[in-house]
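Hi everyone,

Forwarding the result from last night's run.
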Amino acid sequence: MDRNRKKILAGALAAVCLFGGCSVGGRKVVITGGLGSQDVFKIGGNTCKLTEAKVYLANCQNIYGKSYGVDLWEQGFQIKKLKRYIKSVTLSKMTKVACMELLAKERNISLTPEEQKSIKIAASEYYLSLNEAEQSYTGASESDIVSMYEDYALANKVYQSLTAGVDEEVSDDEARIMEAMQIYVTSQAEADGAAAKLAAGEDFAAVASNYNQKPAIEITFGRGELPSEVEQVAFELDNDEISPCIAVEDGFYFIKCINKFNEELTDANKSKIVEAREKAAFDDVYEEFVKGLSSALNEEVWNEITLVTDGSIVTDAFFTTVEEAIN
């Protein structure tokens, strides 16, 4: 495997550490043998069946098993870690939907007849897309897919309900993204040396190539991404202006402004800021709700589920098909 593909795979597998313990609804689960042979987990009053888990797994193995056009399964590199990652992602997705379905019941949120009709059409479309191997592996019927799509759509409706009041207005100043060059050093002597060269009129990039101790010289950044002392000075610079030496807790910065307002990146950042606001509004309610839920994982059943990576399972449209129907 070439170096670039190893980097891609390493990036995908880095998220494994996010799932260091098995949790349901954000809480440590109780491992139990008290569930049925077709039950994967139970949370609150909801039980996840083996068929549902296999549908999710089949899709997640193809969605997360590919990165930047590279099929990670074909590489045969760290397959055990990749399988653990896929199963962790899958369990996280399923339990969140289960929790949100319970939250929907508590808040009297339900699907309208029109929404149910759209969901049935989408479920039929997805079910008909499954090949023989996928139908055999999952054991899913069309009615199973309809039920799963209803749960997913209900979870989406809960999210929309909890984030409906979020302020979507973001000013240019709040979202502003700058393009700049930086010099960062850790000692006063190095800072004095860089300052002297800049004061003498030497090219900023040339000085940076000799002094900068950060991985990159050219940077783009928004608010909250650099130390507050740097941000305060940097956002007052005009194009081509160079800051004085800026002392921070662990070193010293010099910033040269290249473009004080990148319009394209700023517009994209506005969307990210709104998404962060929505997530915060949702998490405030969701995390408090799941604290009161009991949960149980059928470890034996979950561990026995295998991923089929011989190329016969290619389905990856479960989520996109239902999302197109409900959005």
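The radius of gyration is 25 Å.

Cheers,
N.
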